[in-house]
Amino acid sequence: MSYVVEMLNIRKEFPGIVANDNITLALKKGEIHALLGENGAGKSTLMGVLFGMYQPERGIVKVNGKEVRIANPNVANRLGIGMVHQHFKLVENFTVTENIILGSEPLKGMVLDIDKAAKRIEELSKHYGLNVDPHAKIEDISVGMQQRVEILKMLYREADVLILDEPTAVLTPAEIDELMKIMRNLIKEGKSIIIITHKLKEIKAVADRCTVIRRGKGIGTVNVADASEASLAEMMVGRHVSFKVDKKESTPGEVVLKIDSLSVKNNRKVMGLKDFSLEVRAGEIVGVAGVEGNGQTELVEAITGLRKAESGTVLISGEEITNLPIRDRNEKGISHIPEDRHKRGLVLDYTLESNMVLQIYNKPPFSKYGLLNESAMKTYAQNILTNFDVRSGEGAASIARTLSGGNQQKAIIGRELELDPKLLIAVQPTRGLDVGSIEYIHKRIIEHRDKGNAVLLISLELDEVLQLSDRIAIVNNGELVGTVIASETNENEVGLMMAGVAKERSI
Amino acid sequence: MRNTIVSLISIILGLVAGGILMLFIGSNPIEGYSYLLQGALKNIERIGNTLATATPLIFTGLSVAFAFRTGLFNIGASGQMLVGGLAASAVGLTFDLSRPVLLLVMVLVGLIAGGLWAFVPGLLKAKFNVHEVVSTIMMNWIAYWTIYYVVPGYFKGEFLETESKKLAESATLRTPFLTDMFDGSYINLGLFLAVIAVIIIAFIIDKTTLGFELKAVGFNRFAAEYAGMKVNRNIILSMLISGALAGVGGVALYTGNASSIQIGILPAQGYDGIAVALLGANHPIGVFFAAVLFGILYSGTGFMNAMTDIPPELANTIIAIIIYFAATSVMIERLLNKFMKRRSNRKDKSGPVVEKGDS
């Protein structure tokens, strides 16, 4: 059997951390190979080594049986290795074609030959069933389409080995199905794919083999057909993982959050949320289910104060907060796990220490008379990081930017729960997390509920909403379609309501 | 630490490039630099003059650096200096107070005038999202023409129409104690004010909740907003403080280093402040040393020009090249990384790189 890529006994260290310790991964020609591991297990580092972003301290990389030294990504490209990063590297106001040829522009004499490139991109797109318009601007196309542009970029550069770094993290369920189809097409054409992921369902659906790493160490490679989701999870986490969320019956108390006929404009200055009313009581989790962009963002931002409400009221424990500044709302007991952790959740260039007190730096013991008390900040941060198992190179002194996405998310959740809010607004709280962390976060959210607090959960993952919520509010097109009891409903009913069917409107 | 290394490398590269230039015009670089240094530091008087030259640069460097920490680009230090200097001079020429009180009032009005001059762009940015680069530059010209009108109109000099009346010795920041200590140099109390400003600003940035907020807004205003900080208030406040610093810089320049204001000149120190901040990596201590370096280059250049045939413009050229390297610090850092990596990978065996199609 011929291997296109072999990484043998790779070791890579960073200051204070061994990211990869003796890891071996061999990619067969024409297979989809999953690389599975928890957040911060070292998956991205290993692929960074293969893509030439890092030099390993020890170990051998072979491409097509020959030993190579991949000094930088250009060398990797030349060797036919292409990578689609988790955060796309595209120029927003360029067209698809311009983005793809960026760095290797075809010339006709002295001028750029865009037409030729566009034609070739169209051909490639058709050949692999990518359905990308080469003349569309990046800012106008969906995230899923942007990802396909990244894949096209690799194909345009004649990559034979494609590395996809958590490709489904940013996609909607329909886009995920589409991506899997595309991956199968690519394999048929003789490409080989490494997919970095921690989503077991997707591995079962699409991968041929799976290499598991745990805390920087290689655990082994298995045939996906012979493995179950549970066994993969156990390999990854190192203990038995329960997929079922254990929770008691909820015991709703008084109303904590009361939203009354709230209307909010979206970024395009039209009503994104219309006449929306909802109550969340102490001791219950209310999930909001809906397809992305159906008013969830507007709802959350209007409650937290990031966006102005056009009409209607928001009450916290009977007190109106509709027009209060954000800080006052926080002080009234609202905590918010934001949708976009890089934009809102963290000051990426601050240390974790600073980030952990982002809302409360001005309160004792973290400051007195306007002077910061760094040792108090440090102790406080350290405590959160330990409790939530946030892994970083230098503990509380690490710059937030240097953490892996999952660890950043855990840090944010830790920060918000540590505030012990009366109302926790959790938007996609487990986005980008592995099963072990998801299990833990879910447990903590339920604990928070059981302490008698209200939780408003907004998630695009129906599974999560169904498992975690006590009641589910379904939104469609900015309107409340209806509210159902979680234990009395199922995926089908909620799915139909998400499409707006409950209102008996023909679509 | 890393920033310091990058800045030092920029300086060395700038000096080397300046040396090469001297070679090209047929002079001996070693001789040139030795006269440059002598001109700046040869005796106690020259050292005093060098420090005095650096004083306004410390203020404008701090001003630009402080705004930059909040993500704002204050190009208006020149205008803020002018109005600060004008306000202080007006007080010095008009009121007959006891010296300590007069000086204190002069510094305070300079501070307030500079602050107000920057408050306008801050307000425009916060309320209407007008880019501060545009509005601060426009404020520079408003200051320029204000001086053009006010100085000949109300404070005309005795001999020249183009400058203000000279301040009485007792109404300037010069003090016999310093002048004597530095052998008749024009060094003045402005230097002490500058050192105090460095300490205060460093303290604000690193140790206070205000600094915490301002930096958070500068790094990521969306996260700052999310965390409940008042982004607009912080923008205005940052501009206000930035302008106040430049305003006091103007006081130091026009009532310390000089004792009158000329019309028709935007002080170059305002723009040099950008370079000082850049080289000082936007840190107050870094700004201090960068300003002193600029002071050396500026004040040594005359002596170098007198002793050799190297033109005085060379100092500006060297500064420009240093700034060029400091501005492309990414490049220097990359080189640095490569160098460090090579050292840590020395034992790494380097296999051959297979070209595509080779196999």
Order of helices and strands of chain B: HHHHHHHHHHHHHHH
Distance between the termini of chain A: 52 Å
Radius of gyration of chain B: 23 Å
Poorly predicted runs of 5 or more residues of chain B: 345-359
Q: Report the average pLDDT across residues of chain B.
A: 90
The spatial strand order of the largest sheet of chain A comes to: 6-9-10-3-11-12
Main beta-sheet strand count, sense and barrel state of chain A: 6 strands, mixed
Could you explain how this protein is built, in words?
The complex is a heterodimer of chains A (507) and B (359). Chain A is an alpha/beta fold and 507 residues long. Chain A has three domains: 3-237, Rossmann fold (3-Layer(aba) Sandwich); 242-333 and 421-507, P-loop containing nucleotide triphosphate hydrolases (Rossmann fold, 3-Layer(aba) Sandwich), CATH 3.40.50; 346-416, no CATH class. Helix content of chain A is 32%, strand content 27%. In chain A, strand 19 and strand 20 (371-372) form a beta hairpin. The longest helix of chain A has 16 residues, at 173-188. Residues 503-507 of chain A have low confidence and may be disordered. Chain B has helices spanning 2-24, 29-41, 44-69, 77-94, 99-128, 132-154, 176-181, 190-207, 209-219, 221-226, 231-257, 268-279, 284-307, 313-327, 329-344. Chain B is globular and about 65 Å long. Chain B contains 15 helices and no strands. Residues 345-359 of chain B have low confidence and may be disordered. In chain B, 75% of the residues lie in helices and 0% in strands. Classes of the chains: A alpha/beta (507), B mainly alpha (359).
